[in-house]
Specification:
Strand content: 5-15%
Number of strands: 4
Helix content: 55-70%
CATH superfamily: Outer membrane efflux proteins (OEP)
Number of helices: 10
CATH class: Mainly Alpha
Distance between the termini: 54 Å
Radius of gyration: 38 Å
Oligomer: single chain
CATH topology: Outer membrane efflux proteins (OEP)
């Protein structure tokens, strides 16, 4: 009986090593490499860049003159013989060119240039959002890996506890209820591990899709730094976002494009000019030349030009209001993310410096009490499981912190450098 008791105490001393002190998987896939790969290979980001390239080609089109018209013809030929001996019969060649009212083309080109810059900034915004999504998936996977390590350690504790309980029951010093509780706890932990493992497969597939990889591409161990540093105040973050966030800058470009469209619409009632040159060859008479100047007449301005002015004015107001709404939404989101980052950092530090050490002290106290028979095995194991649960929460908070920082970087348009 004394031999069994010594064996039990030695085993429990081994079991009470904190899960956080166990060896973890080495970090093999760096976050910087993952972000670089996403920027290089993500299909949707590539599509956005191509769309921006396409939009950049529209400015010169809007500023170009309409194509000239070349005309060839046989004029004033008699129907009875198609001869060339009549005075007005000639072989005709003409060239005409339409010229918009001075300045109208410039407004059209300016509008398209603003749209092109907005398209480039939209691609930049998509890139920033992609990086945030990649980091979110990456750190979620890193949390899952560390949670699985902690859960596996806890399951080993439960299995060792089952062996000890079975040995005590075999010599009449333990209860069958302890054996049944240990078996249920092992089965429950195995089920929890299975759920997390399947969730990891799904999250790995999501990360692979963001990287432009096949969904089944294996993903190894990942980084998960502990929270550190100070997050700037919301007002400071918003000042940076107002100047750098691509979506806000794109909204300004669209407002400028709408303004150029409005000014162009105001000049839409001004006439266009057409200049035409012609040359008529008369085989039996002197050749003729023609010069013509045409001007468009805005007779239907009430149903065409004036509604166009109102349309562009409404679009300009719409884009200006959208920019204001985007400012407000950015400020609100930055406030949420900063609060989440601060909360995760502070709680993580509290777990590391206070809660987990106290829980570990509780385990040591329970072990001392067990040596003199004042507590049962389940109490001792419950205390150790609590340490593991706190360790899991600390890791989750680290992932939440890194995800919040990634969201702040996406909204401000700059790398904060905060770990």
């Amino acid at each position: 009986m004394n031999l069994l008791r010594l064996h039990t105490i030695a085993l429990l001393l081994t079991l009470c090593v904190p899960a956080s002190g166990r060896a973890q998987r080495p970090d093999t896939l760096r976050i910087a490499d993952v972000v670089a790969e996403a920027r290089r290979a993500n299909p949707m980001l590539q599509a956005a860049r191509y769309q921006a390239d396409a939009a950049g080609e529209r400015g010169s089109q809007a500023g170009a003159l309409p194509d000239p018209m070349l005309s060839l013809g046989l004029r004033n030929r008699p129907l009875d013989g198609f001869g060339t001996d009549q005075m007005m019969t000639m072989n005709w060649i003409g060239l005409s060119q339409r010229f918009p009212w001075p300045g109208n083309q410039g407004f059209g080109a300016e509008r398209q240039e603003h749209f092109a810059r907005a398209a480039e900034l939209d691609a930049d915004e998509m890139e920033a959002a992609l990086v945030a999504r990649v980091k979110e998936a990456y750190f979620h996977l890193a949390f899952m890996d560390r949670a699985l390590d902690i859960m596996a350690s806890t399951r080993e504790l439960l299995r060792d506890f089952l062996e000890v309980t079975s040995a005590r029951y075999a010599v009449g010093a333990g209860l069958q209820q302890d054996i049944l509780q240990a078996q249920v706890a092992i089965a429950q932990m195995t089920a929890d591990i299975t759920v997390v493992e399947q969730n990891r497969v799904a999250m790995a597939a999501r990360l692979n899709s963001l990287l432009g990889r096949p969904a089944t591409e294996p993903i190894g161990s990942l980084e998960l730094p502990d929270p550190a540093g100070t997050v700037p105040a919301v007002d400071s973050l918003m000042t940076v976002a107002a100047s750098n966030r691509p979506a806000i800058r794109a909204a300004r470009e669209r407002a400028s494009a709408a303004e150029a469209g409005y000014r162009a619409a105001q000049r839409g009632a001004y006439p266009d000019f057409t200049v035409a040159l012609g040359y008529g060859q008369r085989p039996q008479y002197e050749d003729l030349a023609t010069i013509e100047v045409g001007i468009s007449l805005p007779l239907w301005s009430g149903s065409k030009q004036k509604p166009k002015i109102r349309e562009m004015q409404a679009l300009q107001s719409s884009e200006e209001v959208r920019e204001i709404d985007l400012h407000n939404e950015t400020f609100a989101r930055l406030s949420e993310l900063r609060a989440a980052a601060e909360r995760a950092r502070d709680l993580s530090e509290l777990y590391r410096t206070s809660i987990i050490p106290q829980a570990q002290a509780a385990v040591e106290s329970a072990l001392s009490a067990y040596r003199v028979g004042e507590v049962d095995y389940m109490t001792l194991l419950s205390n150790q499981t609590t340490v593991n649960r706190f360790d899991t929460e600390r890791v989750r908070l680290a992932a939440e912190y890194q995800t919040s920082i990634a969201g702040i970087e996406a909204l401000t348009g700059v790398e904060t450098g905060i770990q």
